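Example complex used in Figure S2.
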Amino acid sequence: MTRLTSIPGLPPLLACLGILVVWELLARWYGLNGLPPASQALPQIPHILSDKESLIDMGESLRRMAIGYGLALLIAVPIGLWMGRSRYAAAFFNPLMMVIYPVPKAALMPIIMLWLGVGDASKTLVIFLGVTLPLIYHSYQGSRAVEEKLLWSASAMGLGGFARLWRVVLPAALPEILVGCKTGLVLALITMVTSEMIARQAGIGNIVFVSLDLGAYDTVYAMIVIIGMLGILFDVGFEVLRRRLVGWADSPHTIMVGSA
Amino acid sequence: MTIWLRSAFAASCLVAATVAGADRASAQTVPTIRVGWTVPAEDAKYWMMKRPEQFPNLGKTYKVEWIQFQGTAPMVQAMVAGALDCSTQGVLSLGQGAASAGLETYVVAQHVGEKPGGFSVYWAVKDDSPIKTVKDIKGKTVGINVLGSGIYGPMAMYLKKNGIDPEKDIKLVEAPFPTQEDAIRSGRIDVGVLNQPFASRAEAKGGLRKLFSIADGVPNVVHIVEACKKSFVDKNPDLAAMYVRDLTTGMGKALANREETLKIVSEVFKAPAAVFEPFYFKTNDFARDPGAAPNFDGIQQLFDIYADVGMLPKKLNAADFRNAKIVAPLK
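Predicted assembly (591 residues):
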């Protein structure tokens, strides 16, 4: 058994196969329209991925996700770093985070829609909000954990406040920030889909929710698998990037399914 | 590492800026109507979306920005918020928007309704169910798509006529239309409500029996209409007229060419045409007026029912939703 689990890629493959078998058996056992067998749902994947409009829809969703995620990186990371180095900033932002944290971001969609309309801006804001909190939290923790000695040395070498944050705190906190980035990536994917639940022009929601309305469950399940695959791709890509950036750091904080 | 770090940071800035810049911000020289739509059965709009070249003014004299919504209630919110000019509406959502949110609209066209001999939304039981007539549902679990939905009013009215209080004598369970068939067959509910295409699918499978339909209590129910904000229509009468003219044309094209309509519907829903083939434009489908003309008497009838059962806070007059000049059919 130990030998099997040591083969790279085998455990996740076995886990996936196990899920497929359970899915197939349960679907056949219950015989419900709402739970098509895996053998019926999975063949929809190539159809979806070869359909030009579906690819455009996915591209649109990913574009919004990239904007929301990018903006969150630009805004949340500096705030988190600042909170970690300034107790006034921490005292100001911490209560705000406590209030915003438990609010389901997708539930804000109807209200955000009233402010920003039904276009891309409202969906991007929901994604931004979903990603921001883990980014702030991990940047804050990473920044707080930076050794004072490093900062004293930097000060002694004549570095000002912003330069210390940019050249000392940011690199030192990076492993922790990247944990937040990784969590944020998953949340971005989730909020990307939920932001399209109420209104959309183009996006993955076009496929998921229209299929749901029509009771086309094979397509719905195929889309769930595709979204899951996207999540794995992002995770693997991110892990490569993380190793390039902070390969020197110890714990890889791996949360993905993997055996490497 | 430092180079990597800085490159990554710079790249993220660049990506965010580039992607944000690439966002749709094209200058509009042609007037645009922001239209909300949903599924299913808005054939005139589907034709306009997927075959715009068949409408001489569409895309040239005026444009339509199509925005898909999950149901009619969010479209009321969007219209109130000024994010939409026109949208698909049920009579209830239209009335609630007017009575509760002060949303003033004109009904400019009708997508589908019911008429004798056509499909009427119905409640079904299993073939072997002991429930034989509507009077037998006392104490039973009855499915509804959404508590307080547009079909609840006519159902409540019909049950009351048969001596059943819908609030006390039955247990109403909310479940979306696509899940009703499964819920009946698995015994989770005793009676479930079926709409198209689920009714057609359930009938093909067999084993279910119709108990009563909306038409048994209220004939000629109006299901979905096209509504435009009064402020929009009054300010842009020519633009609104062009849109309504195209809706009229679209309905004509849809009814005249069933095969092409099935293709279009299949494209819109990304579902095989076979899903719609068993009922679309057949006798077991909803009724469509060839000119997309709204049935204002039917709308008034529903307004009255909704007010009577307490779903609308006050009586509404359907005539207030009519603009004599901008209403289908418009040639």
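The longest strand of chain A covers residues 199-200. Confidence is low (pLDDT under 50) at residues 255-260 of chain A.
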